[in-house]
Amino acid sequence: MDLFQVLEKDHRSILSALDRLSETTDRALRTRVELLTKLKETLELHASFEEKILYPTLASYKEAKPSANKSRQEHKRIQKQLHRLTKIPRNEPEWETEFKMLKAQIESHVKAEERSIFKLAQTLLSPEQLEDLTTRIEEDRKERGESGLRRKPPQT
Ligand SMILES: [Fe+2]
Ligand SMILES: [Fe+2]
Is residue 152 a part of any domain in this protein? Predict the structure, then answer.
């Protein structure tokens, strides 16, 4: 998988966790807690790579800087909303309202990223830079015990 396939795969799993969470009711508290924990883990892993590696690389290009900054701001808003949500008891009606807000924020961020940030990265970065980022995401996942990437076996 290349860099964008890995990132887009994360996006799909984040969106699917959100969909599954929106189907839970306040009677399925345990499922809600488990899904939310999973969502937080995936988001954290994904966002930390984007913030530490992808956005700074892009921000060194004038044309990509505004998008990188905007994405970073969106991460902050999502983080705040996630924090707010974790403070609310899972069986309160308010939880659903705040969850819907979080879901909308994440969905719009993912869409914007795939339409703008990833496209910019594909246009601006050289094949060597992209290869380097792929290696770095792979190392990042290995360090954290996640197998996000599987290298092709060496050709003999
Ligand atoms: Fe992001
Ligand atoms: Fe992303």
Answer: no
